[in-house]
């Protein structure tokens, strides 16, 4: 068995490549989705019922579909209606759309628990529109939703494994490749599992650090 | 025009998704409780082993686990059919999440009630069975239903090892009709209906608990 591990590890460049593809896919998804989610959280909190209901419908529809199905749709359905995407573009678009919905819902949840006095106080100090959101509401949402956003980030990493079916060479795709070359699937997938574990725990650790920093700054 | 043949095929796939997820839940919930009990029991080695198992399982994508169970086990001399591998994958995966849910509700349990049970001469097991469990399951119920929706949404992972579930049925239909939109959109609607029903059931259960016991 140890000999099998050694054999699987001879393919370390493949593992490393898959690992980094997973990392950059998820990191760029996190950045883009968070920005889009902030924009989407505004209609979700709108005072107008029609706007609220429409954005609610979009967010709930996306959230209730499995990620793999959405990836299939981006990869196979878009060409059918005349939009041809590379597998990478389809993967990134699917990741961003899917997680924007989740992040927006998380931010909306945090927003609805924010005391209304915060917004009133901000307005009293002359903050309106975008400046009100950027200076008063936004930062508090991120602090309040921090751990939940972190959990969703871990979900992003795990969902990214589905992208192997649309031929994205991420970690699970590479692991599957290694096992089909060397015929040591047991050890190969254990190595992949360990790499995922390291990745998910790093995210958890980073969220924890950020929370500490936020707390220190708040006290001061 | 509605293609009834396609709908019938998709319904078959949906049933496969549902019964495999159902078995996963039926095995995963009690297995999770056992894991949580071992974890909080502080039995040396065993408790730590469960902690590591839960941590690794929660970080592993379902699809990676499915490939591990299907290909890895057969390399170790245990050849599994895709269905059996799928059942094992979903049960093991969801059990780790249910273990954390159970653990949270057991840890949140008021200490003084356990002490009172001890004062009445109950053994630790009796106190757990008669005092902790009947109250802890109520706190666990909403996150459990939530985990069930997550299981349904990650179940397409079993399509990759050859189980003809809802997602695989849709992609098969797309492959021989060369028209991917109708099967994929229908499949998405079926998933949405299942997930929405679960969310409805969760709200209903929450309301019932509040109605009957006053608090969640």
Helices and strands in order:
The complex is a heterodimer of chains A (220) and B (216).
Chain A: H1 2-9, H2 12-44, H3 49-63, H4 67-80, H5 87-112, H6 116-124, H7 129-160, H8 171-182, H9 185-219
Helix pairs in contact in A: 2-5, 2-7, 2-8, 3-5, 4-5, 5-7, 7-9, 8-9
Chain B: H1 4-41, H2 44-59, H3 62-75, H4 82-107, H5 111-119, H6 124-154, H7 166-177, H8 181-213
Helix pairs in contact in B: 1-2, 1-4, 1-6, 1-7, 1-8, 2-4, 3-4, 4-6, 5-6, 6-8, 7-8
Helicity of chain B, as a percent range? over 70%
Distance between the termini of chain B: 47 Å
What is the largest interface, and how many residues per chain? A-B, 44 and 42 residues
Q: Please work out how many helical segments of chain B DSSP would assign.
A: 8
Overall morphology of chain A = flat
What oligomeric state is this? heterodimer
Structure, described:
- The complex is a heterodimer of chains A (220) and B (216).
- Chain A is flat, with a radius of gyration of 21 Å.
- The longest helix of chain A is centred in the C-terminal third of the chain and has 35 residues, at 185-219.
- With 220 residues, chain A is mainly α.
- Chain A has helices at residues 2-9, 12-44, 49-63, 67-80, 87-112, 116-124, 129-160, 171-182, 185-219.
- Chain B has 8 helices and no strands.
- Chain B has helices spanning 4-41, 44-59, 62-75, 82-107, 111-119, 124-154, 166-177, 181-213.
- The chains are: A mainly alpha (220), B mainly alpha (216).
- The interface between A and B is large, with 44 and 42 residues.
Offer a concise description of the structure.
The complex is a heterodimer of chains A (220) and B (216). With 220 residues, chain A is mostly helical. Helix content of chain A is 84%, strand content 0%.
Descriptors for this entry?
A: 220 residues, 9 helices, B: 216 residues, mainly alpha, 8 helices, flat
């Amino acid at each position: 068995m140890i000999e099998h591990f050694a054999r699987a590890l001879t393919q370390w460049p493949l593992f490393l490549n898959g690992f980094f593809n997973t990392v950059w896919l998820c990191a760029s998804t996190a950045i883009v989705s968070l920005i889009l989610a902030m924009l989407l959280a505004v209609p979700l909190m709108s005072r107008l019922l029609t706007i609220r209901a429409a954005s609610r419908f979009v967010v709930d529809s996306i959230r209730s579909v499995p990620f793999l199905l959405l990836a299939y749709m981006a990869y196979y359905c878009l060409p059918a209606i005349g939009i041809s995407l590379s597998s990478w573009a389809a993967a990134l678009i699917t990741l961003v759309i899917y997680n924007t919905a989740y992040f927006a819902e998380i931010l909306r949840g945090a927003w609805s628990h924010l005391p209304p006095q915060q917004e009133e106080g901000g307005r009293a100090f002359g903050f309106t529109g975008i400046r009100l959101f950027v200076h008063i509401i936004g930062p508090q949402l991120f602090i309040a939703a921090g751990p939940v956003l972190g959990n969703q980030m871990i979900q992003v990493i795990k969902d990214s494994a589905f992208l192997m079916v649309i031929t994205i060479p991420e970690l699970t795709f590479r692991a599957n490749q290694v096992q089909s070359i060397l015929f040591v699937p047991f050890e190969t997938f254990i190595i992949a599992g360990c790499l995922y574990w390291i990745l998910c725990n790093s995210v958890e650790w980073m969220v924890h650090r950020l929370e500490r920093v936020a707390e220190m700054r708040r006290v001061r | 025009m509605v293609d009834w043949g396609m709908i019938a095929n998709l319904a078959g796939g949906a049933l496969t998704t549902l019964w495999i997820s159902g078995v996963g839940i039926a095995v995963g919930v009690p297995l999770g409780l056992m894991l949580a009990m071992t974890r909080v029991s502080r039995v040396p080695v065993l408790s730590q082993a469960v902690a590591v198992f839960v941590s690794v399982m929660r970080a592993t994508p379902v699809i990676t686990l499915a490939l591990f169970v299907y290909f890895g086990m057969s390399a170790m001399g245990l050849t599994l059919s895709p269905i059996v591998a799928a059942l094992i994958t979903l049960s093991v995966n969801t059990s780790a999440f249910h273990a954390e849910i159970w653990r949270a509700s057991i840890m949140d349990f008021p200490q003084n009630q356990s002490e009172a049970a001890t004062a009445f001469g109950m053994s630790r097991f009796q106190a757990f069975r008669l005092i902790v469990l009947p109250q802890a399951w109520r706190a666990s119920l909403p996150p459990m239903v939530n985990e069930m929706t997550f299981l349904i949404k990650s179940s397409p992972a079993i399509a990759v090892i050859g189980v003809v579930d809802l997602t695989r049925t849709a992609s098969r239909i797309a492959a021989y009709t060369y028209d991917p939109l109708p099967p994929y959109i229908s499949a998405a609607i079926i998933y949405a209906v299942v997930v929405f029903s679960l969310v409805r059931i969760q709200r209903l259960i929450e309301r019932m608990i509040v109605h009957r016991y006053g608090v969640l």
